[in-house]
Amino acid sequence: MKKYLKDLEKELRKLKMSDSEIKEILADHSEMIETALEEGLDESDLPSKFGEPESIAKELHKDNLVVSLENSSIDEIDKSELIEGYELFESFNYVDPSYKIRIKLISADIVCKIHDRETIDVYITRNKEKYECYYKNGEFVLKRKKKIALFEFSKGSDFVVFLPSSSAIEDFDFAATSGDADISGISTIEAKISTVSGDAELSKFNAKNALFTTVSGDLELQDIKLDEVKFNSVSGDVEIKNMEVNGDMVLKTVSGDYELFNVVAENTSIRTISGDCEGHEVYTKTISLSSISGDIEIKNSDLTRLPTVLKKKTVSGDIDVNGVKL
User: Fold this and answer.
1) Element (H, E) at 9
2) Where exactly are the structural domains of the chain?
3) What is the pTM of this model?
């Protein structure tokens, strides 16, 4: 236990977390570990039970950063103090009235937010030489350079990207492999969000046309406004809360599950192979439902807004709309 906590403290100090934060984290983990040991857990199983110290420190640092960003005014606080443990990678002083965004990351976590300044500011934790970041011809690009070495053993990087609220985004193209993303406050015409073996959280996100794709990763969306949207999931779960879609909404899953809460759309299509789809307060004028072995269930409290079922097809899964099996 002592070695585990000492390793955790070492990793937290590498990320330059404050003494008070480290003290609180170690106290909390000490209590949890003591309880687990009293219940019979072997000390050798601590990493598998609670996670490796490096992973825990990284996640706690990210959570601390997100809270700081949400509770702080970017214009009133120096960014070098706000983003503790990060350094400025690139800053672009001139941004066109409308521009495009291309972000392609591998083994990197990212927080992407809007701020009141007229600049694009990019912060990074390490390995600057492995990424390229530029703004050219109305397009902002952040991506991993092509690999030269056959094998790499160094740690990945974390990013924080601030985008100007004064400029309009035409196209937001984001792809991440083996990394997590926290994206909020974005308004764009076209949106393409793709994750592989990583999770993505989106909030206060607006777009006319949007495509969300996840493979072996989870998507969480909250407070979303779209005109048209398509979701594709393979072995990844999707949770949606408070979403308005003016036109068509298409949900497809191979083996991942969908959970929908307070969702409104003009027309909805749900197709599942072996994943389940559960909707609460999902209001749509028309709906098409197809299932191979997954279950689809829709529960609405307002019975005056029942959808017109255009298609229903199932092989071995159940389809249930407001208690009526179709």
Assistant:
1) helix 2-14
2) 2-63, 78-325
3) 0.72
Cα–Cα distances in Å, from 70 out to 67, 182, 213? Answer: 5, 12, 27
- The better pLDDT of the pair 312, 51 is held by 312
Tell me the two tokens of residue 7. Answer: 């390793």
> What is the Cα–Cα distance from 148 to 245, expressed in whole angstroms?
43
β-pair partners for 277: 258, 296
Q: For residue 15, give the nearest of 55, 49, 46 by alpha carbon.
A: 55
Span 47-70, average pLDDT: 66
The CATH number of the structural domain formed by 78-325 is 2.160.20.120
Amino acid in the structure at residue 5? L
**How far, in Å, CA of 67 to CA of 229, rounded?**
29
Q: Is 127 exposed, middle or buried (0-12, 13-18, 19+ CB in 10 A)?
A: middle
The answer to whether residues 234 and 218 touch, using CB atoms and an 8 Å cutoff, is no
Write phi, then psi, for 301 (nearest 5 degrees).
-85, -25
Looking at residue 266, what is its pLDDT?
96
3-state secondary structure of 34: helix
Query: 236, 108, 102, 111: which is closest to 179 by C-alpha?
Result: 108
